Amino acid sequence: MTIQSALPQAPARQTGPTQVGPRSQDAFRRASCVFPDGTTRVTIERDPLPRYVSHGSGAYVFDADGRRFLDLNANFTTLIHGHAFGPVVSALERQLRDGTCFANPTEREIELAELICGRVAAIERIRFCNTGTEAVMFAIKAARAWTGRPAIAKIEGAYHGAYDWVEVSQSSGPGNWGDAAEPQSVSYYKGQPTSVLKEVVPLRFNDVQGAVERIEHNADSLAAIVIDPMPSRAGLIAPDPEFIAAIQSTARAHGILIISDEVLNFRQGLAGASARYGLEPDLYTLGKIIGGGLPIGAIAGRASVMSMFDAGQSRPAVPQGGTFSANPMSMTAGLVAMQNLDQAAFVHLERLGDLLRSRLRQAIERWQVAFSITGAASLFRIHPKRRPPRDFREAFWSPREAAIMTEMTRYFAAEGIILPNGAAACLSTPMVDGDVDLVGQVFEHFLSDVAQSFEWDQP
Predict the structure, then answer these.
(1) Alpha-helix residue ranges (DSSP H) falling in 283-327
(2) Can you give the pTM of this predicted structure?
(3) Which of 52, 108, 237, 357 could hold 24 in an S-S bridge, CB 3.0 to 4.6 Å?
(4) Is the CB of residue 378 less than 8 Å from the CB of residue 71?
(5) In 340-391, where does DSSP find H-type helix?
(6) pLDDT surpasses 70 at 4
(7) Nearest to residue 202, comparing CAs of 162, 156, 237?
(8) How far is CA 428 from CA 3, 60, 99, 278, in A?
């Protein structure tokens, strides 16, 4: 069943794995001649071909063949104001004429830093870089310099970018993740040094006793605990208050720093996700929404720890630079985007998020199928599980569950909605109740048309 009234541009719904149009197919043929696998990011979704986008406007993108899609990906949650946000476009046009990058600092970087420090009381100092990966890398280096220790602890299955240490156990599975009481350090790529594996302690999310025991056992070597307050790829699961409290108190007792990776989850409120869940980190890593759609990253936190980057009098403990760090284009876009992301905008997103998650749960209850919903604020994930998972292992998909989710992503795409497969879906400020209604209707129709025919895993 299709929803033509909501998307008049949409053709009749296609089924099967090839849903992209001829221009996307032609683009991929060309790309395959110049890129190793036809793309430049491993995160690009393809089934089996990627859909090429020509432009975006508000909450929607248009593919190379002219079809419109409601975008629940928003470049992996980056575009909190949607595509081609007017105030950012206007500000960038002015900055483009003034210059795109300089070897000298600009006032825009001070203004963006003042805004962020003003919103988060625990952020006393901040440094800008180019990506979330860089932010995490430099935060870990600062923690090592501060503590004199080499190792880190991280949540099993959590994604923190492309730095060797945080890639450990990022994509482990039942065949190699080890005993629940002692998760194994699992390599992410072929050739990852075994010495790196020995310097990472994986923790199970929401496992209070296990996390405390592993932190205490390795305390002498741990510089930091890297934690995303709601790990996206590990399930977009809310933390138990007891887990947050245990991590916090154990780290403090052993002089271990806490790094809150809010590259994705800073969109959970005016002061971010740590404030929402009671975490008091020493360092933050930020990115995505603070760049207004342009490349950005930031390391922030307590002034004493951030002094590891201080080059005012002598060589810093941790040298940190970058040709495009704090470039005026990213600073300008980020400043305007964040100025427009005020309390009213967060209230709007929170209301839409609550409405959508409720709508999805009602559909699940109505059809009595084995799905569940996680997420908070403007973020949500649909799981092919009867009960919401509490950690990465519970969220892990069996082959049958993966097939169900692939079919759901195809169904949504056929109805004109981009729904990420295996990652956080998100809302943006230009969305309205009608967009939420559309997502809810398509999910309801999927449960009616398709989900009833699947053979489900036993709970």
Answers:
(1) 303-306
(2) 0.94
(3) 52
(4) no
(5) 343-367
(6) no
(7) 156
(8) 22, 10, 29, 25
